[in-house]
Write a sequence for this structure.
């Protein structure tokens, strides 16, 4: 059983913009940790149910970072809960990870598992990923790399035909909508 709770202070009334919204399956332990961090506070248990529902509600209440006292987006992060959410590795830790991955060879079995994980992403997770990257600005260097990669891409005749057909469908749809809008 999971709980979604709201920690607030006496002067706050708005769950959507203030306080802290969290999830736990152990209220006593979690509130003990919060008391050490926040001191005295009021709380409300706003939901009791399964883990998936709890994560969905937390995401609904905290759809972006830095709302109220929450630092990170609520709910699961791209389908995987990460204890590093809202934190950054130090430069030293990043270098250790890089060194540890040098020469790393993945077995065919591992590659197959990773492929399954990458292709079986739910629509909800895809939406979260889309929202996370919306409005993100790439550096000039990154934009140049993407541009170069796209410029050097070689497409098969079959792919070209599919793209052409898709563009024609879009053109027809656009013009049909414009005619309806203009009353023709």
């Amino acid at each position: 059983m999971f709980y979604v709770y709201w920690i607030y202070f006496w002067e706050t009334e708005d769950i959507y913009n203030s306080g802290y919204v969290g999830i736990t399956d152990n209220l006593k332990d979690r509130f003990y940790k919060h008391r050490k961090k926040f001191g005295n506070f009021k709380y409300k248990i706003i939901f009791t149910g399964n883990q998936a529902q709890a994560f969905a509600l937390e995401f609904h209440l905290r759809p972006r970072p830095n709302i109220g006292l929450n630092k990170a987006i609520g709910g699961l992060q791209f389908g995987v809960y990460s204890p590093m959410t809202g934190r950054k590795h130090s430069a030293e830790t990043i270098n250790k990870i890089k060194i540890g991955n040098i020469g790393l060879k993945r077995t065919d079995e591992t590659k197959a598992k990773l492929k399954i994980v990458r292709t079986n992403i739910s629509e909800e997770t895809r939406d979260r990923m889309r929202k996370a990257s919306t409005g993100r600005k790439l550096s000039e260097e990154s934009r140049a790399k993407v541009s170069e990669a796209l410029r050097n891409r070689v497409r098969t005749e079959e792919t070209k035909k599919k793209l052409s057909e898709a563009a024609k469908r879009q053109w027809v749809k656009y013009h049909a909508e414009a005619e309806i809008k203009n009353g023709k």
